[in-house]
Design brief:
This protein is α+β, with helices and mostly antiparallel strands. The chain is 67% helix and 11% strand. It contains eleven helices and six strands. Strands 2-3-5-6 form a four-stranded antiparallel β-sheet, with no helix packed on it. It has a two-stranded parallel ribbon with strand order 1-4. The model is unreliable at 1-21 (pLDDT under 50).
Length: 433
């Protein structure tokens, strides 16, 4: 019982204080993107790969560490052989430069991957922001409909009380209101879920809850604020934009860079066949008691050896695998280019369809719907129509407004999806007209 009581106290007092400690910051889309770029933990982790690749260049360009050699002969050997102190050093032939080139190419790949991750994060923020605004818009629409239904219930009760309408009118209006209440509750949950996903995408470790501005989708859509062209734009054909659409694809650039890495790796592996040189040198001396002439004899010594001669093993399996990896990278590059055309084509077609649907809503469906509802309500209030017709009309109007919000969200998201496919957040269709 005490545990249960403690849990209740924690929920009632501790949890609200934690939530209150977190500040809510309302942002526009561009501000949300900047917040994610500055604070996103995953992006910070991905950027470390670039620093690792830079350190790998220094490691690849390293010189081999020397060895210290000491020879002290004992017994009879000590009487005839000099004692030696010196160093030996392995000199790699045609290997350091090849390794460094490979490491530099790997750095470029890491930078391209980071650019891709950064771009992908921007698109994720756009999509999460749009979904949050869309959820708020639907909630706003349902809350408006709930207020209208409450007004309708009041009208129905007054008419029933005045014996101008049957009791069933009041019952129908109350059922419709209760149905709307459940829909409003569900919409509130959807808004909270969209808000949570929005903050998950930004992934800020600080105690900040980011929220979209309270501007909902409306007929005065600020497409510029949502970084999207207006739906009545004279969009070019796919053939006119395909070349530009493929210029900035990160996956194509990454695949091309992987070919470069495979080529340089083949060079590194092939040069393992080249023998290295080992240089030795130092100081040698022989004490006077062991010298034939009775004097202390000393001097320097130097030597050279050819090491790692590919006599018993010539690295053929490694070279063959490196050649196969190069061929594999080339095939992947061709595959990525081939798929990119299809992906961009599908994304652009989806966007054009979304624009057409949105224009259809704005020009042929939404206009006049509000006036029709007002007319229907006045008609019922004056007894010219029954409540069933008015409820059906209100439900149709609700479906239209929600459908319009969804069409607008789909338009924004389809543009985001198109940008995601062309990998260019500032893609300008006007350049291709």
């Amino acid at each position: 019982m005490k545990k249960v009581l403690c849990s209740i106290i924690f929920i009632l007092f501790i949890v609200p204080s934690v939530i209150a400690a977190e500040s809510v910051q309302k942002v526009y889309l561009n501000e949300a993107i900047q917040a994610a770029l500055k604070n996103n933990i995953d992006l910070q982790a991905a950027s470390i790969n670039v620093n690792i690749a830079k350190n790998n260049i220094r490691a690849a360009n390293r010189l081999q560490n020397p060895s210290f050699d000491a020879f002290y002969f004992m017994g009879a050997a000590g009487r005839s052989e000099p004692r030696q102190l010196g160093f030996s050093e392995n000199i790699e032939i045609a290997k350091r430069k090849a390794r460094k080139n490979l490491a530099e190419s790997t750095l470029k790949l890491a930078e391209k991957n980071l650019d891709y991750t950064t771009f992908d994060l921007k698109m994720d923020v756009r999509e999460a922001y749009i979904n949050l605004v869309a959820a708020k818009s639907i909630l706003y629409t349902l809350e408006q409909q709930k207020e209208l239904q409450e007004e309708l219930l009041s009208i129905a009760k007054n008419r029933v009380k005045a014996h101008n309408a049957p009791d069933i009118d009041s019952i129908q209006a109350e059922i419709a209101l209760n149905q709307l209440i459940t829909q409003v509750n569900t919409a509130k949950v959807n808004v909270n879920s969209a808000l949570s996903n929005f903050n998950k995408v930004i992934n800020d470790p600080n105690n900040i809850i980011y929220d979209s501005m309270d501007k909902i989708f409306s007929e005065e859509n600020n497409f510029e604020e949502m970084l999207t062209p207006p739906p009545d734009y004279n969009f070019p054909s796919f053939d006119e934009i395909i070349q530009k659409a493929l210029e900035n694809r990160f996956d194509i650039k990454i695949s091309k860079q992987q070919i470069d890495i495979a080529e340089k790796n083949l060079t590194v592996v092939a040069r393992q066949r080249i023998p290295d040189i080992q240089l030795t040198g130092g100081y040698a001396y022989k004490p006077s008691q062991y010298a034939d002439n009775g004097n202390f004899n000393n001097g320097a010594y130097a030597g050279a050896s050819i090491v790692n001669i590919p006599l018993f093993y010539n690295y053929s399996p490694e070279i063959q695998n490196a050649a196969l990896q190069l061929k594999q990278a080339e095939l992947k590059y061709n595959s990525v280019k081939n798929k990119a055309i299809k992906d961009v084509s599908a994304a652009y077609e989806r966007f054009l369809t979304a624009a057409d649907n949105l224009n259809h809503y704005e020009t042929k469906i939404v206009k006049g719907s509000e006036q029709l509802i007002e007319t229907s309500k006045e008609s019922y209030e004056t007894g010219k129509s029954d409540i069933t017709s008015l409820i059906v009309m209100k439900q149709s109007y609700k479906s239209i407004i929600i459908g319009y919000s969804q069409a607008l969200a789909e338009y924004y998201n389809s543009w985001t999806n198109f940008l995601r496919e062309v990998n260019d957040e500032e893609f300008d269709l006007a350049d291709d007209l």
